[in-house]
From TrEMBL:
Domain of life, per lineage: Archaea
Matches recorded under InterPro entries: DUF6663
Biological classification of the source: Archaea, Methanobacteriati, Methanobacteriota, Stenosarchaea group, Halobacteria
Record protein name field: Uncharacterized protein
Compositionally biased region (Basic and acidic residues): 16-32
UniProt region (Disordered), positions on chain: 1-51, 257-287
Annotated Acidic residues bias: 266-287
Length: 287
């Protein structure tokens, strides 16, 4: 009998498994949400010959202390076969999308995992888009401030026109010789702690997470939008061609209105406090 693993997993992505020689770069890999790559069509090369697999991240039972030296290992990705299922299980597997949280049992054969049982418990969504154009102002201005401070990472809380927190925006340097976007997409640089940070202080509803590398800037943005079905998530999808969104796009005003929290809560920001009794969210210093 094949050994099995049961638990709660994040469906991080669906893609061919990178070849060992390709691990450090994403040049030949399919960019599923990259509008310049032709959508879901495989790019020429070795990846076209490898089947799609699900990149899964097992979710811990409780909070992970970021100061724990083994914290990063808690989010190591694993791969599960995406094809070759039958019956009801085939329908459930084919319906999975990046970002979904599932309760699943995996069976292992010769180091490869297959779903034995699976149930979706939360329909969050992840999007990965490379070489995007027209990066929004909140990200560009925040990155300038981060670099002026001599830092390589940083974050802000964005707000709606009404001043309500609507997203946590994390920015990472994309330094020469590295590939931050590829590391985030492959799960080598974990996204899960950023989502977990939001879930600590918001309701546990589905999120929309956008991993964007702008063509004109040397950073990668991870934008955790609090409400998957809200105006902001729809506008980001529409703006970057990542699925159904607002027909009005940027003209809706919500996206341009997303801005850094510039209120007078500097003491809260410096201490990492969550803000006032209304459940205000502070994204700072939790990377």
């Amino acid at each position: 009998m094949d050994p099995t693993t049961s638990g709660r997993f994040r469906v991080h992505d669906r893609r061919p498994r990178p070849a060992i020689e390709d691990e450090g770069a994403d040049g030949d890999h399919v960019q599923l949400d990259d509008p310049t790559s032709g959508g879901d069509d495989p790019a020429p090369g070795a990846d076209a010959e490898r089947p799609d697999e699900f990149v899964l991240v097992e979710l811990p039972d409780g909070p992970v202390d970021p100061n724990d030296p083994n914290a990063a290992d808690q989010f190591d990705p694993l791969y599960a076969t995406a094809e070759g299922y039958a019956g009801d299980l085939a329908e459930r597997v084919s319906a999975l999308e990046p970002g979904f949280v599932v309760e699943a049992t995996l069976a292992w054969t010769d180091g490869s995992a297959r779903f034995v049982d699976i149930d979706v418990v939360r329909e969050s969504r992840f999007h990965f888009a490379d070489e995007v154009e027209g990066m929004f102002e909140a990200a560009v201005e925040t990155w300038r401030q981060i670099r002026a401070d001599g830092e390589a990472v940083g974050s802000i809380t964005t707000r709606s026109n009404d001043g309500d927190p609507n997203g946590a925006l994390y920015l990472f340097a994309d330094a020469p010789g590295g590939d931050t976007f590829a590391d985030l997409r492959a799960g080598r640089l974990p996204i899960e702690p950023l989502v977990a940070r939001v879930n600590e202080f918001r309701d546990d509803g589905p999120r929309e997470v956008f991993v964007l590398r702008p063509i004109a800037h040397d950073f990668v943005a991870v934008y955790v939008v609090f409400d998957r079905d809200g105006v902001l998530a729809q506008t980001v999808r529409d703006t970057y061609g990542l699925g159904p969104g607002l027909a009005a796009g940027l003209e809706a005003g919500e996206f341009e209105a997303a801005k850094a929290d510039s209120g007078d809560g500097s003491a809260d920001e410096a201490s990492g406090d969550t803000g006032d009794a209304d459940g205000d969210f502070d994204a700072l210093d939790r990377l």
